[in-house]
Amino acid sequence: MLSLARPAAARAFARPLARSAAGIAAVRLQHTLPELPYAYDALEPHISKEIMTLHHDRHHKAYVDGLNAAESSYAATDDVKERIKLQPALKFNGGGHINHTLFWKNLTPANSPGAKLAPGPLKEAIERDFGSLEALQKELNAKTAAIQGSGWGWLGFNTSNKKLEIVTTANQDPLLCAFHFFLWLCMW
Ligand SMILES: [Fe+2]
């Protein structure tokens, strides 16, 4: 007769192995602060060097450190309650890391070619769904300004209705639904 229950000796041997494997996985998955794709002062006068330094080196770094700590704690226990307790830290720091990693790539110096909305599919979609770039900016400003506390404003392509839409998320919540993203704004 086959049994799904393993002998006690096998369980005792398997547990340290499982913890060890989880430990190795945690080391392999250590998250790191990505380099900015431009200099800290490259976005002046719109965003100062001091704000970029604070935002990247301290805020984003804190999310990376918090995510690594939460993942290490998660991997170090097999207690379900302890793992459930870690969910808020994983969401907050994981979202903060994901969102800011996207955010840095989303910005570019005003004098770079990518700073201008070039003719093409994105421009056509903006004009189709918002009327104009100015109308998009107006709606984005209004919706992100209405965020209470901190949060994010997103311009995304809704894969359900095939339209560009502006949505917001609270705190560091990432946008985990049927969207492809084009633009991210961090509000704090
Ligand atoms: Fe931020």
Automatic annotation (TrEMBL):
GO molecular function: manganese ion binding; superoxide dismutase activity
Keyword line: Antioxidant, Metal-binding, Oxidoreductase
Xref: Gene3D superfamilies: Fe,Mn superoxide dismutase (SOD) domain, Iron/manganese superoxide dismutase, C-terminal domain
Pfam families: Sod_Fe_C, Sod_Fe_N
EC nos: 1.15.1.1
Keyword NADP on entry: no
Transmembrane domains' residue ranges: none
Gene Ontology cellular-component annotations: mitochondrion
SUPFAM superfamilies according to UniProt: Fe,Mn superoxide dismutase (SOD), C-terminal domain, Fe,Mn superoxide dismutase (SOD), N-terminal domain
Manganese/iron superoxide dismutase N-terminal domain residues: 30-107
Domain Manganese/iron superoxide dismutase C-terminal, chain residue ranges per copy: 120-178
PANTHER family, alphabetized: SUPEROXIDE DISMUTASE 2 (PTHR11404), SUPEROXIDE DISMUTASE [MN], MITOCHONDRIAL (PTHR11404:SF6)
Function: Destroys radicals which are normally produced within the cells and which are toxic to biological systems.
Similarity remark: Belongs to the iron/manganese superoxide dismutase family.
Designated name of the protein: Superoxide dismutase
Organism: Calocera cornea HHB12733
